[in-house]
Design goal:
five-stranded antiparallel β-sheet; alpha+beta; three-stranded antiparallel β-sheet; 12 helices; Phosphorylase Kinase, domain 1; Aminoglycoside 3'-phosphotransferase, Chain: A, domain 2; 11 strands
Length: 281
Amino acid sequence: MSEQQSVLSQEQTRLLDTWYPERDLISDHSWGLVGTRVLEISAGGEHVIVKAADSKDDHLPREIRAHREWLAPWTTINRAPKLLHADDHARIIATQYLPGQLVQRSTAEDEVGTYAQAGALLALLHSQLAVTDIDYARLERDQTLRALELPHRLDPATERRLRRDVERWPVSPVTLVPTHGDWHPRNWLIYDGAILAIDFGRAALRPAASDLVRLSSRQFRRNSDFERAFLEGYGSDPRTADAWLRERLREAIGVVTWAYAVGDETFEQEGHRNIAELLAQ
């Protein structure tokens, strides 16, 4: 296992040796943009995905929480991977491998039925729990203002306008549900005609509408039939005008700062485009 030992910490390797003492590396699916390794392994007849994060990556703790608390509506119908092992301190998790083809850049990405399924699947996640949070809106406003302090390529006039707008955001109680946090075709598989969910590193309690933000700036923008099918599958439209605008603006600000930090220029430009369009509204 020299391939895995070279990319995992000593503690992570020790745990993996305990969980799967005899294993073979099938593939390394790591992105390379952040300090998380995603390894596909074979061990004792099991096909497993291992994710291991460094101390700077806060996604893996979210993924572990999602598996422990929120994914049962999906795992019980085999639409998401089951948790096999996890260690919070070492930041490592092992989950069931799901067969299938990534929807992104496949023919399924251009099929209306894909979005109807994705909407219905998301409704199962959202409907299991709803809580009222009196602090969420204030914390999100303050976090968005802090994001504007990070290095970015926003022009000064745009930054000043954003800061003025964000400072005026209301801080009233908000209803939160379990959300995927990155719900779009890059995190969907299709297998035997069914849509499956993967990658829960951004899972958290948020407003339901937040899970539509990335779809709205990409797939829904490209084809309104996808949006209609998604909402039919979901069963309603969780978006309200003012809150939806804030969700999209918060996401876009996060995109331009995060993408600049990791050097993802394509994603960064998407954030700049969205900010310009939203401010025009």
